[in-house]
# Entry
Amino acid sequence: MNESASPSRAERNRLQLRADIIQAAFEEFSARGYHQTAIADIARRLGIGHGTFYRHFQNKRDILEHVINDVSAKVMNALGAENGPTAADSLEGYREQLVRISRVLTSIFAEQPAIARLLLFEATSIDPEMTARLLGLLDMGGKMTAAYMENGVRLGFFRQDLDTEATGHAVVGMILMSVVRFLNAPNDHEGQKKMGDAVQRLLVDGVARR
# Structure
């Protein structure tokens, strides 16, 4: 066993405090709103000084950047290997792939709905750079989804006349609406299941070759 590969206690404590600051920030963002939350509010919730906060983050926007990077990495990881754009070679394989991806994406936002709420409803009002970044991520999501469509068209299990680019962006819109529905009614599990089933049917029956 290579003990040098394990982080030291000090490093573990540093990472834990960083995670605690992020969590405290999102609790304050949820309670007050991003713009109304001050560094003092975050520090007070954790019982730490301003200096401790600034050793980990430059400002509260830096926290948001960290979270976007983390969520992006989790989503990209979920879309690798067997869930990659060219992994499915049949309609049934695509259907199974879709279920796996749906479960992973749902878990990412269900674990911390405050993140989804902030990204959807507040982050675009922070500054033009943040707005451009989020819009760029949505555009990238549409293009990546189009790659799944293109794979289906190329292998013949999707309609040959499918507009893959437009469909890819439309899928992103459906996913966003699913997230909004979850945020508005987090305990409506039956409604969420129906929404998920409807989206999956559209993504299979709506594009399958007949």
Summary: The CA atoms of residues 18 and 56 lie 6 Å apart. Residues 7-57 form a domain with the Arc Repressor Mutant, subunit A fold (CATH 1.10.10.60). The mean pLDDT is 89.
